[in-house]
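Changelog excerpt

This revision adds worked examples to the README so contributors can see how folded entries look when concatenated. The first example is reproduced verbatim below.
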Amino acid sequence: MNEVNKTLYIPLYGKSFVSRKDIILHDAKAEEIWAKEGFELKGKSKSKWLAYNMAMRARVFDDWTDQMLKNNPDAIVLHIGCGLDSRCLRVKQPYSCWYDCDFPDVLEVRRQYYQESSSYHMMELDATDTEKIDQLPEGNTVIVVLEGISMYLTNDQLKALIASLRQKYLYVHVLLDVYTQFGARASEKKNPINDVGVTKVYGVDDIDAICEGTGVMKTAEHSFTPKHLIDELKPVERGFFKMLFTGKTYGRIYRLFELKSI
């Protein structure tokens, strides 16, 4: 598994960590996989504060996916860069067609823990290979989860991915997290992903420019760390967590956008 693919273990650890604590995110599958596949993390990767942050991010994506499925029960769900994540099990709303997509070596591990069915599928997909989007199933509406992936794509690659999804589907709903340019520069020197060998990431300062000409527009910006999730932490932990992962400083580094077709 290459360095970029190894980054999937950082959020996996975070989700298993909070799940064992019975807060924020209940993820028995993450606990199971980490127990078998996990390794000793170094530096910030094993920080409980980062674990809380990763779990809250996942929970926000879960809740958004649930809401989108409630509004669009017949939609195709497309999770690009799924890693070993168990969102397909965590969502509460039923779905008729879910595709978890990643690189072949990631899916090789994933298939040891997940079984395909009439409604759940795994597919090899490189986010930079937009021609592969044509091989996805036909449909009118797609719910696209881009969690922890945009920072490994150039702005041109991200724009091409969004445009290809819009060309394939009439109604597109996307949630994606992005580093800012400042956040990307800072991350090259000081980021948990450095602990698994990744040193190059990309940032987005103008999400509207990414959307321009793709047939998709920004509709909202969300918080990674909503108050109701922070409140699940112990009172003595909340203040320090807020200092690290909320406020204007954090917003200068990392942002979460919702997009939809025009």
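The second example, added in the same revision:
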Amino acid sequence: MSRRGETIELAVLGLLHEGPMHGYELRKRLNLMLGWGRVLSYGSLYPTLKKMLRGNLIEESTSSTVTTSRRPRIVYQVTDAGTREFERLMSEVGPAAWEDDNFDIRFAFFGRTDMEIRLRVLEGRRIRLQERLDRVQRELQMTEKEVDRYAAELQRHGVESVEREVRWLSDLINAERGLSAGQPMVPPPDSSTAPQT
């Protein structure tokens, strides 16, 4: 399965743990979760739902609510196999867990994840972003004299965005470690440093 397909599957399973939903509601909630830059079409959602139905991860039933089209509305709900698959996906701590395509969705469901797994994913994400930051800063220094001011400004903006996310992750990691030491969870000092999805 493609990485995007796995991300959609993880998000669907996570959302269906909140309760049964029909396709329209799933798409609306997924688009809110994925952010404005990654809008999900029905052409991506329904093939994933059909695959998940064949894999017995979800099941469908018809809604008893009356609709204007007089067609019964199909509602999806997670199965026991889907719950196990969601737990398996959420327990993965390798590079796919902290890559851009997957991290935001996993983070949205962190409340259902063991603290050690959360820490490993957050630390992996921070390391990956620190590597990206180092590379971008080197490139910025090398190209500052070769590009016009707008291209240089765009590069600086990229550096600042990654620096902001690294600080945010560091605050989250420190809060998680404090939680494991028995201290109460304190939100990071500046919520404006959270990444924008």
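Reviewer comment on example two: Residues 126 and 169 are 6 Å apart (CA to CA). The mean pLDDT is 83.
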